[in-house]
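TA notes, week 10

Several of you asked for a full example with nothing omitted. So below is the full record: structure tokens for the whole chain, then the designed sequence directly under it. When grading your own attempts, check the secondary structure regions first.
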């Protein structure tokens, strides 16, 4: 019994922010019904290659992107533009604790599936809308995309190599951080709303916006700016106030060296057979190293290139100098710590293959999240849900299928 196994979630979201949120809830046992368009489903099902492979090693219709955010859910295909489809959503909402959707502002109102409409059938409903810019403000009608929001929200102004260096300029993150963080914030908001409902019997509306989250997650960069009124700049993999605190290329790969004090700097250069650098007055203290960054860093870069990644990691860890590798994903999943924490999971898929996934990282002693089922195929549970939840018989289901509603 998962911590949230008493909850029913109606998931009208697709792509990433909403599905990431509902996957979190599903991992803790909530019964998540994913509503998808008949014939096509979630857009990310087709965001490939790569695709999941079946038992014969052939590509299926399930893109790896889709697999990342949809485990432990049940898929029901439904045309919500049809009156019959809308009626089914309302019937399911009347039995649900939470509705999550990420349609454009106002789009569901014309179907009678907005918060006010569903609140009429389930007064204590928690209803979470996820959009690019929220339900209010001049940008509310705009479609929101993670890449654009990373730029608008300031993230790309502090991410990327320094403008004066080769390759300098703004850089997005390697994953859709605004989407993912919005999914995480939405999870927290839904759980808070449910706690309030359980105490008071009152449901509520949750308005989540990618831009809001992107701005909020800049954390200390925000407060640095607000305190100083000076806009932070890009430093690439370097640190504005500590040297050396950056990446270096070894003879066979990259490492991170994070020297936090003068003693660690001495140990670092001793490991590189350059102890005289620690005695050089230009480099002996961190303030001087910051001032002489452009002189020192090329010397250190040449020093680091003389040894392999493994040699540097072994020597610096033994000396107590903070360091770490920059692993490729094959190296990540071969890492003994990652393996010991059971971060990779394989779940049987209806195609006969295995869905290779990443486990929920939360560890709990009594009610840990569980990976029970692979992301569903399109409409995999349609008939079962209609029978179980709404007591539809075979004839009614057949009629809905013939009409293209499911």
């Amino acid at each position: 019994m998962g911590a949230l196994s008493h909850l029913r979630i109606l998931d009208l979201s697709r792509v990433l922010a909403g599905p990431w949120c509902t996957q979190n809830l599903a991992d803790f046992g909530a019964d998540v019904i994913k509503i998808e368009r008949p014939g096509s489903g979630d857009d990310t099902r087709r965001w490939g290659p790569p695709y999941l492979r079946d038992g014969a090693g052939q590509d299926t219709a399930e893109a790896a992107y889709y697999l990342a955010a949809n485990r432990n859910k049940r898929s029901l295909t439904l045309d919500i533009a049809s009156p019959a489809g809308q009626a089914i959503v309302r019937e399911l909402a009347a039995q649900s604790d939470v509705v999550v959707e990420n349609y454009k502002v106002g789009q569901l109102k014309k179907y009678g599936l907005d918060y006010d409409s569903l609140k009429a059938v389930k007064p204590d409903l928690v209803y979470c809308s996820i959009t690019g810019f929220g339900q209010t403000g001049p940008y509310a009608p705009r479609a929101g995309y993670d890449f654009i929001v990373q730029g608008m929200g300031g993230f790309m102004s502090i991410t990327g190599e320094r403008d004066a260096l080769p390759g300098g300029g703004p850089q997005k993150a390697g994953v859709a951080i605004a989407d993912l963080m919005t999914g995480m914030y939405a999870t927290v908001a839904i759980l808070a709303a449910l706690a309030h409902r359980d105490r008071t019997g009152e449901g509520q509306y949750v308005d989540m916006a990618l831009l809001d989250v992107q701005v909020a997650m800049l954390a200390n960069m925000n407060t640095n700016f607000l305190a100083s009124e000076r806009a932070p700049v890009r430093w690439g993999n370097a640190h504005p106030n500590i040297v050396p605190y950056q990446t270096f290329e070894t003879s066979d790969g990259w490492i991170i060296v994070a020297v936090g004090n003068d003693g660690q700097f001495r140990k670092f250069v001793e490991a590189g057979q350059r102890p005289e650098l620690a005695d050089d007055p230009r480099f002996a203290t961190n303030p001087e190293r910051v001032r002489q960054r452009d002189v020192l860093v090329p010397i250190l870069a040449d020093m680091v290139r003389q040894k392999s990644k493994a040699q540097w990691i072994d020597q610096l860890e033994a000396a107590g100098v903070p360091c770490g590798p920059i692993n490729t994903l094959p190296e990540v999943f071969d890492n003994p710590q990652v393996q010991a924490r059971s971060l990779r999971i394989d779940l049987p898929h209806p195609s006969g293959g295995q869905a290779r996934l990443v486990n929920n990282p939360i560890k709990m002693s009594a009610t840990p999240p569980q990976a029970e089922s692979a992301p569903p195929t399109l409409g995999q549970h349609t008939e079962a849900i209609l029978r179980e939840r709404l007591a539809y018989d075979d004839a009614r289901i057949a009629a809905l299928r013939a009409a293209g509603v499911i």
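Residues 8-217+339-402 form a domain with the Rossmann fold fold (CATH 3.40.50.10540). Use that as a sanity check on your answer.
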